[in-house]
Specification:
41% helix, alpha/beta
């Protein structure tokens, strides 16, 4: 099994990887805590049509202490992400076990809107999955 998750999907993948045996993981702008997401939603006014109370009651998590069992992970994050701080990517990288790789996109935003970043992401992710799914013992 290989898994990929972006933003909240990245947090879900990290949580899932602790429960099942995963051969490879790729995340993009994965938050480790809910607080920055709530703050970004409040400041931008983009609550996706839901009341703020939904976020305050239903979106409470902190997975930062459950990362040591994560390995074979490729982490992408933009250093200009205004939703999830790039420090989450650095923390994830420091707590995950090897093998692991961290790619920080210079001037990269949360949705990875730069085409060069997207191309690097696609190529690097495909190579990462190929390496760990085709040759899991390398």
């Amino acid at each position: 099994i290989a898994v990929f998750g972006s933003s909240m999907g990245g947090a879900a993948v990290l949580s899932l990887a602790q429960k099942i045996k995963v051969k490879a993981i790729v995340t993009v702008a994965a938050p480790l805590r809910s607080a920055p997401i709530l703050a970004a939603a409040e400041s931008s006014g983009d609550l996706r049509g839901l009341p703020i109370s939904f976020y305050e009651k239903q979106l409470q998590f902190d997975i930062s202490e459950n990362l040591s069992g994560i390995s074979r992970i490729l982490i992408f994050h933009g250093d200009a992400d205004k939703v999830v701080p790039v420090s989450d990517a650095h923390e994830l990288f420091s707590k995950a076990s090897s093998p692991k790789r961290l790619i920080i996109h210079e001037n990269g935003d949360h949705p990875m809107s730069n085409i060069r970043h997207q191309i690097q992401f696609i190529r690097s992710s495909a190579d990462w999955f190929d390496k760990w799914l085709s040759h899991p013992d390398t």
